[in-house]
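Practice record 12: protein with flavin mononucleotide.
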Amino acid sequence: MSENNTYSQILETIMKNRRSVRNFSSEKPAPAQIEKIILAGLNAPFAAAAVGDRNDFRRFFIIKSDSAARKELELIALSHLKVTLKKLNSLPARIMGVTKKLAKLIERLENAKLPNAPYIIIIAELNGIPPVAPQALAHAAENMWLATSAEGLGFQLLSMFETMKENKALCKLLDIKPGEYSLLGCAIGIPMEKYGPVVRPDLKTLTKWL
Ligand SMILES: Cc1cc2nc3c(=O)[nH]c(=O)nc-3n(C[C@H](O)[C@H](O)[C@H](O)COP(=O)(O)O)c2cc1C
């Protein structure tokens, strides 16, 4: 078998085993593993034309479960969730009636809290023109997700942080200017249970060759 085939098979296996993990053991992955994962995030594409010559176009904030920062982050997240819920609940009843999804989202947010993972990582991407930082963050997160799977660890995407780029308390904690970076979060740790491979609809039903 050629070397290329081997790489391709390894990549396929990693992609198949990449899952959303939402329940973590209290055991901590080694910091060297976290560094590998972050490096994978840095190696993901970035929008060079949008961020110009800034070397700090992408930053990583690792919040350890036993840190003072983690306690503070919990309070900040809780208060942000409360404000979000208040805004959603004050939407006209007409809209609420139309979208069952919105009611479901509210229900989910009412029970939301930060996961019990040993590491929460906030990825920050410099906002530029054109405004494509969220897309760049998705690339960084996917690279990190795959690297996490390759390490045999679990990863949960925390999209709540996308709505917090202007949050003054969070930006103060991270020591960044409100609005200068777009944000995305993830939790990383050792999964509590075993996960099977990803399950998706039949590719043939979703594909058209023209
Ligand atoms: C844009 C986006 C946002 C997501 N946000 C969250 C999130 O905030 N919390 C979470 O647990 N999973 C989140 N997910 C994960 C999806 O729910 C998950 O990928 C999907 O259910 C398929 O499961 P799998 O990742 O195990 O294949 C998000 C995924 C995407 C693409």
